Amino acid sequence: MAKNTSITAQRRDDALLERYAPRGNECAYANLKLLTRVVTTLYDDALRPVDLCSGQLALLWAILATEPVEIGRLGVTTLTDQTTLSRTVAKMKKARLVSVRAGRDRRVKVVSLTESGRQRFRDAMPLWEDAQRRAGTLLPLADVRALARQVRKAARAGG
Fold first, then answer.
1. Looking at 28-151, which runs of residues are DSSP E strands?
2. Which of 20, 21, 82, 133 could serve as a FRET partner for 48 with CA atoms 20 to 30 Å apart?
3. Structural domain total, the chain
4. Which sign does the torsion angle of CA 146, 148, 153, 159 carry?
5. What angle do CA 10, 13, 16 make, to 5 degrees?
6. Is the pLDDT of residue 102 over 60?
7. Is 155 among the domain residues?
């Protein structure tokens, strides 16, 4: 009897797997990861001549738009967790792309672009323009921007 029960359970499990197997393309997570890998590679390849990766450029851009910016505020702006942001800023400081100084409250760090960071950003912009054009052939960029606005709004609201 126990053997029949385990065979029945196995068949039920197999049927469940068969039902879900073809639905992998519906998964928001898997689709976003795929898009992220493709787009990241596109931008990283384009930015290679200026020795930047897409994540570094995005962070330089956020710093430029808000500088001088407290690292905590930068994390809120970029929706980046403190550990990841601190590690990335430290690498960029080592590369002399950003400077980090104490704020009015010595526990607060303030980030700004260095002249080298500004120059690297300027050098990257024509490469970014090309990558952006190529990304536009893969994705509807206006829809991507609208979706990003929606996500930022939901994140700020705690959603």
1. 69-70, 98-102, 109-113
2. 82
3. 1
4. positive
5. 150
6. yes
7. no
> Is 17 inside a domain boundary?
no
Cα separation, 57 vs 92, whole angstroms: 10
Instruction: Give the residue numbers spanning the domain of 39.
Output: 27-131
Number of Cβ within 10 Å of residue 60's Cβ equals 20
Q: Assess contact for 102 and 108: CB atoms under 8 A.
A: yes
CB 88 within 8 A of CB 56: yes
Stretch 122-139: mean pLDDT: 97
DSSP state of 50: G
Residue 119 lies in a domain: yes
User: Model's pTM, two decimal places?
Assistant: 0.82
The pLDDT value recorded for residue 2 is 56
Q: Which phi and psi (to 5°) does residue 140 adopt? A: -75, 100
Contacts of 120 (CB under 8 A, 6+ apart): 50, 51, 52, 60, 97
Q: Cβ atoms within 10 A of the Cβ of 91, count?
A: 13
Give mean pLDDT, residues 48-70.
96
| CATH code for the domain in which residue 70 is found | 1.10.10.10
Residue 3's pLDDT band, with cuts at 50, 70 and 90, is: low
